[in-house]
Structure formats: structure tokens, C-alpha cells
């Protein structure tokens, strides 16, 4: 994993301590940030990057795994501060990131609001306002499933829909490392579906997990949970078996 640097960012959100794991990919020519956290995360990102000796201003590209708030909240601010950065995302996600299409997570939150218990509706409305406040960011380059990016000796784009329609994961061939985004998360030491109750298409998300078994993965890094330390293939198969989804 010589070109893969994990940024373990600890912070408080709604009074609860959380950890997110964006990733820096670096070779002789490029420094690539994968996902960029909530709004107002630039300071946290820079501090975490500098722990690896990589100042944030040296980033040349940002690859966005999908449109969710905790992955793109600081994207527009990052681009504004460092306009040389090239934003890369799956072609399905690009119009949502640019504000040309309404956020699917916002549509979901609005649709669920009336069904919430009265005591939870203020939090639901607050979440809607937060989603509405996310600043759009134009994608400079779109990618699709099976595309191979030349950096770090080869990065394969894997379309892993389900959590959102255009969710992507990244496979680093040299180190057999998967950057999973929210295709899977690590919870209590095992691989799980990220927030299955809010996953836009759970069966599609499970099919995406099944596809990951086609890759020789020795290391997997999840945005929520960080690096999974057990056997990856077995962890993926165990996840599928819990949903009775044949592997």
C-alpha cells in the first residue's frame, strides 16, 4: 500500500465522536484525494494530510465516490481554494454534484419527513436544510465502470451502485487494495452494508458486493471504519450470507 495513505479524521458531529477515512493516493506525478468530508473540513483534511508529509495544496485531483454529504461537503470549498484540482466522479453522479439534478439523499429525506415521529421531525428538517445548503461543484472529468486510470501503476474504476446509483470504488492493482467508499463499511470488526435502511437500492448494493469478489483484494479501506484487518474475501462472503444473498 505504498501509494495509499489513510487520513483518519476524528471529529464531533451532533455531539457524537465520529471517524471518517478519506484516502490520499500518491505517485511521482499526482496526489489524489478520495472524498473530502463534511462542510468546513478543509482544516481537518490539511492536518491529517500533513501527518503524512503531504500538504493539502499539493493535491492535484479529487476522486468522489458518490454524492453524499459526508463525502462531498467540502468539495466546492476545496476547489475554490485550490482551483488547479481536477474533480473526478462517475458519470451518473456528476449532474448531482454540479447541482443540475436534485440530490437523491435530499429527495429521500423529504419523502421520509412526514412519516417521522413528531419528536424526530425537527432533526429531519434540520438534515434537509443541511442537504439543501451543500454547494454544487462541477465535475471536470467523468469516469465509468472498467476504466483504468494511469496513476499509482493503475487504478481501476469499479461501478458499485446501490448506496447511490453512481457510487464507485477504486482498485489499486499494485497493492491489491480496494478503496470502498460506502460500498461496504467496517462495524464491530466485520464488513457490513452502509446504513442499509437508507441505501437507495439494497439489492443493487448487495450485487455490488458480489462483484467485488471478482477482484483479488488483499486490503480494503472503508470510509466508515477504516482498514479492514481480516480476510477480505471471507468478510465479503460473510456479509452476503447474512442477507441470504448467494455468493
UniProtKB/TrEMBL annotation:
Keywords, comma-separated and alphabetical: Hydrolase
Catalytic activity: 3',5'-cyclic CMP + H2O = CMP + H(+); 3',5'-cyclic UMP + H2O = UMP + H(+)
Keyword Hydrolase among record annotations: yes
Domain of life of the native organism: Bacteria
Keyword hit for Nuclease: no
One annotated GO molecular function: hydrolase activity
Pfam family, one: Lactamase_B
Domain Metallo-beta-lactamase, residue spans: 19-224
Primary role: Counteracts the endogenous Pycsar antiviral defense system. Phosphodiesterase that enables metal-dependent hydrolysis of host cyclic nucleotide Pycsar defense signals such as cCMP and cUMP.
Protein name: MBL fold metallo-hydrolase
Annotated source species: Brevibacillus fluminis
Amino acid at each position: 500500500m505504498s501509494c495509499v495513505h489513510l487520513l483518519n479524521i476524528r471529529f464531533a458531529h451532533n455531539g457524537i465522536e465520529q471517524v471518517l477515512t478519506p484516502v490520499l493516493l500518491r505517485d511521482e506525478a499526482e496526489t489524489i484525494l478520495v472524498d473530502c468530508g463534511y462542510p468546513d473540513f478543509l482544516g481537518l483534511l490539511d492536518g491529517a494530510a500533513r501527518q503524512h508529509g503531504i500538504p493539502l495544496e499539493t493535491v492535484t485531483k479529487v476522486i468522489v465516490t458518490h454524492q453524499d454529504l459526508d463525502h462531498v461537503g467540502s468539495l466546492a470549498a476545496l476547489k475554490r481554494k485550490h482551483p488547479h484540482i481536477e474533480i473526478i466522479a462517475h458519470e451518473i453522479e456528476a449532474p448531482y454534484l454540479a447541482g443540475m439534478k436534485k440530490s437523491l439523499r435530499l429527495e429521500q429525506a423529504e419523502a421520509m419527513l412526514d412519516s417521522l415521529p413528531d419528536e424526530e421531525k425537527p432533526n429531519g428538517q434540520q438534515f434537509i436544510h443541511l442537504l439543501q445548503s451543500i454547494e454544487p461543484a462541477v465535475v471536470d472529468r467523468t469516469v465509468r465502470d472498467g476504466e483504468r486510470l494511469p496513476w499509482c501503476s493503475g487504478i481501476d474504476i469499479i461501478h458499485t451502485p446501490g448506496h447511490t446509483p453512481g457510487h464507485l470504488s477504486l482498485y489499486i492493482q499494485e497493492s491489491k487494495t480496494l478503496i470502498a467508499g460506502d460500498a461496504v463499511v467496517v462495524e464491530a470488526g466485520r464488513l457490513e452494508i452502509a446504513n442499509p435502511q437508507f441505501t437507495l437500492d439494497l439489492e443493487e448494493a448487495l450485487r455490488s458486493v458480489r462483484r467485488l469478489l471478482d477482484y483479488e483484494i488483499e486490503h480494503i479501506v472503508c470510509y466508515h471504519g477504516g482498514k479492514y484487518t481480516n480476510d477480505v474475501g471471507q468478510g465479503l462472503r460473510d456479509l452476503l450470507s447474512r442477507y441470504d444473498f448467494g455468493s
